[in-house]
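Write out the 3D structure for:
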Amino acid sequence: MNATSDGHRPVREATRTDRLLAALGGLLAAYVSLAVADLVASRVRPEASPVVAVGGAFVDRTPAALKDWAIRTFGENDKAVLQLGILLVLALLAVGIGLLALRRRALGSAAVGAFGVLGALAAVTRPDSDSAVDAVPSLVGAALGALLLYVLIGRLLAPRAGTGTAAARADRRSFLVVAASTGLAATGAAALGRAVGSPVEENATASRAAVRLPRPASPAQSVPAGARLAVPGISPFTTPNRDFYRVDTALVVPKVDANRWRLRLHGTGVREELTLTLRDLMARRTVERDITLACVSNEVGGPYVGNARWLGVPLADLLREAGVRPPSEGGSADQLVARSVDGMTIGTPVEDVMDGRDALLAFGMNGEPLPFEHGFPVRMVVPGLYGYVSACKWIESIELTTFDAYDAYWVPRGWAAEAPVKTQSRIDTPRPFGRPAAGTVMVAGVAWAQHRGVRRVEVRVDDGPWQEARLAAEDTRDTWRQWTYPWEAAPGRHTLTVRATDGTGATQPERRTATMPDGAQGWHSVVVTVEGGE
């Protein structure tokens, strides 16, 4: 006989099988906690889920170098990897808690409750939280998980008249019956929650479906016929919405009800504060423009760049209407801080927004309302600047301030406060380590230098001379350009390298640099093995 986890009533001695079942009980308690919390969060706010809240807090505290590594390594799957990692850590902790509960039942249950409190604190302290109700999912889930663990351990080592094999088997059967029925119930609840859906998300989806984009007062010019090259493997001139890159810190894509959405414009130098609805914006003078966006995390030759046709209102018009003047005209604010519904802040130079470029508050993308993952109902688009200093998605506030007075989200994490896009070029085909046949091989790709334009692209084979590639027709200086180079490929291993010259005459430098603090630069190259010949 030994003492119970509560320190009094006698129970039988725990065996190895009991310890395995206790570990299973800890895992099941964690599973039930998360399943119930997610179900409750679906009715409250999906972002209040403990995994999402804790994951968001982790992302905010992760060193910038680690975030950059995650994006390079996992691409757009970095969020799924993070959530999987959180679940694995929780699983290990749950096993430990289950074993603890075998010795100290109340303490083990209290540990489950403590994790619920941590989840609740993470939820209510997130930048996008505006209600203590966000704590409810974590607390409810943890309470049920703690109760379940207490009951399971009690069933496993229940005090009985007999302490032999038969009694132990009865204890374990009772444990397994409770565990199986509870696990099935939790799985059913989770499935029901997904089937029923979140009313918040349903309202947002319905509001997007109801949006009818206005006809632009200033349509985009027709894309020149020669701007789209029909070369297998080359990036299309216009990136389809489903293929457009997504890099942000949101573990759950915010789904905003357009009917309830408001944009507030305020701050230093604003003569008259403005609060606008989506209907207000769409009733204004709208413009349509082709603009290429690029992420500062894009390494040389990387995929985080895309070109789309955006529909929105000129941001400069809105600022001038509010009385804002750029610094060059004596304005007191030199930074525009855009805030997202998920708490992200992005700082943009006021001068760049108001210098005549097509800086937009966009609500349309490639002929449809913005997809949720790309910022519905409204996002910023500013040609010539990396997204982290310009392209705020799910925007809800614009504050005029100064760079001295405020550091936006990425600046304290080691990124530059200002970051114009650097001239880049990329080989799309042939692919790295490709094995083309000897003869004429079409080398092709894209080059970009937003708001400066691309003047020339050159290709080099091995250490040979630079050869000028054929440039597709230019749409605008704010879009990328496709290029091709017919290469007479001889058998063997070869290195293909590309470089671009922008509209100012500056050629991208050879030396590669890291993405931090203001974007990578350097020549892109691929190694291929040409097959054929004697």
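Residues 165-196 form the longest helix (32 residues).
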